[in-house]
């Protein structure tokens, strides 16, 4: 039996098993071809099938093997620093539609889970961004006001409300969005694959794509063993675009920097502490550049993570750092033991704005999740499928740009972890508004 090795994550240990589908072999044809079986690709496959189009997904490893199955599982309906008013000023009407897509992205994901009864440990109990300094509370207020102007339910929590929500007075207030939450990401990816296949999509796993090209009126996608011909193409590989085949889409691959994001899980928290620490079970990620983030899973483990500089003994160093951070915020917890530690790439770019690209006639891609890919990727997958199946572009949240590769991508990628030192310095400064 074919198999693909997954990182030894908590998600790999708890997600429902999935039998690997057959690799692409020989010559096949379809209407919509999707490269990549993560949240974007599988969401696109589901939407294309719901709209009555034949769709084939080609995945280099297995559904959810990349970033979609390795992240923290937080469903966050805003982006890191791409503010709504900037989308509008930069892209006009397409920017307005993108703001609506981002603001609705949490509901899009959870509605999809509910529609198909996906077993993904989904909890839509809100996302909270606590401010790590008094000045950041002013930044939180500005962000809340911006999202409220666009009609979304952001709320500002003061210090007292923040302490009640988190079970600690370590933070100063912050922004709360009730449409966020969290999921088991690998379980969600496998459930999305199940639903896509149930709806009639074809998925070929263990099939790294070597190349794609426009030939006449069709796209031709090649793997080592097969060829797929399609009217429309969606490239849904994000941070992993150049990882399995370096020549797949080099300009797009070089427009983002794959940065390792480390995740980990504690032992299950006892009932008394569980009721004290984060009693509402929201997803939490604060305002630091050197981010502190955490939430519970279905077994009451705290799922957290972090980053460290350098390449020596990284897993153990980041494990100790994350444990100390939790203990600092929640002294009654003590320094927790981490039972699972794993990592995966996120796609970062210079201004932290996701990019949508048109590959050619009926060809689409997006990259640059910047750590917000769970809700965004699911929503953009649906949007790209609508574009690929004939919905007019001026009705969709697709602000198209040309790829903008980093001039010295290899150098930037190698030294990206040193960016953490700058972020730490910025965390100690109050922002100027």
Question: Top keywords for this entry?
Answer:
433 residues; alpha/beta; eight-stranded mixed beta sheet; 13 helices; 33% helix
Molecular structure report:
This is FAD-dependent oxidoreductase. Residues 31-386 form the FAD dependent oxidoreductase domain. InterPro entries: FAD-dep_OxRdtase, FAD/NAD-bd_sf. This protein has 433 residues and is α/β, with parallel strands linked by helices. It is 33% helix and 24% strand. It contains 13 helices and 18 strands. The protein has helices at 10-14, 39-50, 84-91, 93-115, 134-149, 159-166, 185-198, 250-253, 271-276, 314-329, 373-388, 409-415, 419-427, and strands at 26-35, 55-58, 74-75, 127-130, 155-157, 174-177, 181-182, 202-204, 209-215, 218-223, 226-235, 257-268, 283-285, 293-296, 301-306, 338-348, 355-360, 363-367. Strands 1, 2, 8, 9, 10, 11, 17 and 18 form an eight-stranded mixed beta sheet that branches. α2 packs parallel to α7. The protein is globular and about 60 Å long. It starts with 9 loop residues before the first helix and ends in a 6-residue tail after the last helix.
């Amino acid at each position: 039996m074919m198999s693909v090795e997954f990182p030894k994550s908590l998600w790999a240990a708890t997600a429902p098993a999935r039998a690997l589908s057959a690799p692409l072999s020989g010559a096949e044809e379809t209407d919509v071809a999707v490269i990549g079986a993560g949240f974007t690709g599988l969401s696109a496959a589901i939407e294309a099938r719901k709209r009555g189009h034949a769709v084939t997904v080609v995945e280099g490893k297995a559904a959810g093997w990349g970033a979609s199955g390795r992240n923290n599982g937080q469903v966050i309906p805003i982006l890191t620093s791409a503010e709504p008013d900037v989308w509008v000023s930069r892209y006009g009407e397409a920017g307005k539609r993108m703001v609506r897509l981002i603001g609705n992205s949490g509901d899009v994901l959870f509605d999809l889970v509910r529609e198909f009864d996906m077993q993904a440990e989904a909890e839509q109990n809100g996302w909270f961004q606590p401010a790590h300094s008094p000045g950041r509370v002013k930044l939180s207020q500005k962000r809340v006001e911006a999202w409220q102007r666009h009609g979304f339910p952001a709320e500002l929590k003061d210090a007292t409300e923040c302490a009640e929500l988190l079970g600690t007075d370590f933070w100063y207030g912050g922004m709360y969005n009730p449409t966020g939450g969290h999921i088991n990401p690998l379980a969600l990816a496998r459930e999305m694959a199940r639903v896509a296949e149930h709806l009639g999509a074809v998925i070929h796993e263990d099939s790294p794509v070597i190349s794609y090209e426009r030939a006449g009126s069709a796209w031709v996608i090649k793997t080592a063993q097969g060829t797929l011909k399609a009217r429309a193409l969606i490239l849904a590989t994000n941070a992993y675009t150049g990882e399995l085949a370096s020549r797949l889409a080099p300009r797009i691959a070089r427009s983002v920097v794959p940065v390792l994001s480390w995740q980990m899980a504690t032992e299950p928290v006892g009932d008394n502490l569980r009721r004290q620490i984060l009693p509402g079970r929201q997803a939490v990620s604060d305002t630091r550049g050197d981010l502190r983030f955490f939430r519970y899973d279905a077994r009451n483990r705290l799922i957290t993570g972090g980053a460290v500089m350098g390449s020596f003994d990284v897993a153990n160093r980041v494990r100790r750092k994350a444990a100390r951070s939790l203990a600092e915020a929640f002294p009654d917890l003590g320094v927790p033991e981490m039972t699972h530690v794993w990592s995966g790439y996120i796609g970062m770019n210079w201004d932290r704005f996701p990019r949508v690209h048109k590959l050619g006639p009926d060809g689409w891609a997006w990259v640059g999740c910047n750590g917000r890919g769970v809700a965004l990727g699911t929503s953009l997958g649906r949007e790209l499928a609508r574009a690929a199946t004939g919905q007019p572009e001026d009705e969709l949240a697709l602000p198209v740009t040309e790829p903008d590769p980093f001039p010295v991508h290899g150098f930037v990628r190698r030294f990206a972890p040193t960016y953490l030192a700058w972020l730490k310095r910025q965390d100690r400064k109050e922002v100027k508004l």
